[in-house]
Amino acid sequence: MIRRPASHFTIVFQALFVTFLWSTSFIIIKIGLKDLSPLLFAGMRYFLAFIILFPFLFNGKNLGNLKKVNKADWYKLLVLGFLFYTITQAAQFIGLSLLPSVTVSIILNFTPLFVAIAAILFLNEIPTALQWVGVILFIMGVFVYFYPLKFSGGYLSGILIMLLGVLANALSSILGRSVNREAKLEPVVITVISMGFGSIILFIISLIVEGLPDLSLISLIYIIWLAAVNTAFAFNLWNLTLRSLTAVESSIINGTMLIQIAFLAWIFLGENLTFGKICGMIITSLGAFLVQAKKRF
Predict the structure, then answer these.
(1) 100 upstream amide cis, omega within 30 of 0
(2) In whole angstroms, what is the distance from residue 49 CA to residue 17 CA?
């Protein structure tokens, strides 16, 4: 029996489902941080996800691809793992322990802006007119969201830690683009190697800084769910959708996460949003999308 390819509607729905899973991660992490320390939570989530994904390295296609990884590739993948899994995820979990989930999501949307700046400096990629409009809109949206600019000590610390994470995330995006541009390595190979290295480093650091965990059953469920469903399963499903979605479509779908997180945080965490913050979120989302646009005007 010949299997029909999935319809475009089905693929879009699958991609939206992945962003929903990723959005729920913010809520689960916020709740889990009541009992778990941030570094340990992040380290255990991604180390377990690495263990789940590790066997996929040894199927026929990925195993053959793994043998093609040379010394230069290993160096790039290890640096990628350190930037994205050790620094970025540590900063995100610490940020969520100090800031509202929507605020963390807003700051994470700085990534395309940082990537655009890094692309100018390191890749000589000059932004288009549309992208510059996106930058201006993004900055305006952030200003509207945070107005009036009054930050307490803990709030300011959270913002600074998140900005460090965004910088690491942007650098990992540039490096990841370089690795993927060569089209030599499979996504599973890239992810498992980088996640393995980055998560092991993060897990070791968490044990040194925060000590051995005293896990409750509910905390263990949070970690397993985030690792198995929101990381391993969602990663595989997202990569399947990217085979059919255009870059613009995937960018728009990914951009819905800010709204999803705000809605979920309102329902489950009681994080209220003022009219000004909602306007700031919309403007920021539009700006972040335009920064990623490639069409020249």
Answers:
(1) no
(2) 19
Distances (CA, A) of 216 to 51, 166, 219, 222, 224: 21, 31, 5, 10, 12
What whole-number distance in Å separates Cα of residue 289 and Cα of residue 30? 26
Sign of the Cα torsion 213, 217, 223, 228 reads: positive
The token duo for 36 is 């778990």
- Is 281:258 a contact under the CB 8 Å cutoff? yes
Break the chain into its structural domains and give their ranges. 8-291
Model pLDDT for residues 205-262, shown as the tens digit of each residue: 999 998 887 889 999 999 999 999 999 999 889 888 877 877 667 777 887 888 889 8
Contacts of 218 (CB under 8 A, 6+ apart): 35
Integer Rg of the chain from CA: 19
For the chain, give me the number of helices (H) and strands (E)?
A: 15, 0
CA dist 297 and 286 (Å) reads 17
Residues 6 or more apart whose CB falls under 8 angstroms from that of 180 comprise: 187, 190
